[in-house]
Amino acid sequence: MNQPRSKIVLIPGASSGIGKTAAQLFAQHRWNVVAKARSPEQVPSLA
After folding, report:
1. What is the pTM of this model?
2. C-alpha 17, offset from chain centre
3. Which among 12, 21, 29, 47 is placed 20 to 30 Å from 41, CA to CA?
């Protein structure tokens, strides 16, 4: 199986709870994170 050139993950519910934790962990492991949330004003704090 071919390895992807870049790692991209879409995280729904990234403003809190499991979604926020998952987004942080993927970011720590150098994945490109696309974070979605009902409260988008809280998502930039993940950076």
Report:
1. 0.76
2. 12
3. 29
